[in-house]
Predict the 3D structure of the following.
Amino acid sequence: MRILLSNDDGYQAPGIVALYEAIRDLGEVEVVAPEHNNSAKSNALTLHAPLYVNVAANGFRYVNGTPADCVHVALTGLLGYKPDLVVSGINNGANMGDDTIYSGTVGAAMEGYLFGIPAIAFSQVEKGWSHLDAAARKARELVQYLVAHHRAQEAPWLLNVNIPNRPYGELKPYKVSRLGRRHAADQVISQTSPRGEIMYWIGGAGLPKDDAEGTDFHASLQGHPTITPLKVDLTDHDALRYWAQAAAQLPPGEEKA
Ligand code: MN
């Protein structure tokens, strides 16, 4: 079992160090992670600047790029083999509901998935790394189960996992959940720079709007680590017919004789 481990908080973040220590004996685990914090970089790839790979004293490789860059470079040449599993995290903070669109943690896992490799994104619900040991142990349990039951040999899947910040003994069983939804993000924060220019800081994520039973928001609030299987097709299949009717009303253009 060969596992590629990445994250979006950077190769020195406590979350990736804890996850590496927790799963290192489950297979051959290689770390390729961003040099700096790349949270909210989604699936971004760096196309207009060179990427450099360096090796830290602990053997982790780090890249001056995004989470998706790290996985992309690893899979397309750096590793020289196709890993059996891509694991991302553990992220400093929740990736629930709409967060998954922006998340670099999910982006790293998704890059593996797009290359046909099963992948998991792990996040802790609260920022600040409290009870990280418990989250790493829970993450290990899932990876160990998947490895032991050969689930990585199936058609590729993409799992998004959020683990409440609780002591291990207070974590409830894993619960499979759908993504909830958030309200629109908070207002942008503007300040005046020392040079008199207006600076804008992106505000926080919105509060949950759909946190009904069955969602990741709901289950994690009850103390369950949540598992949401994700897919990548953004097509609104229900709307295809509606837009086909609208498109039929548009000028047909000139047909070639
Ligand atoms: Mn992050």
About this structure: The first strand starts at residue 2 and ends at 6. The first helix runs from residue 14 to 23. The pocket of manganese (II) ion is lined by residues 8-9, 39, 91-92, 104-105 (CB under 6 Å). The chain has a mean pLDDT of 96.
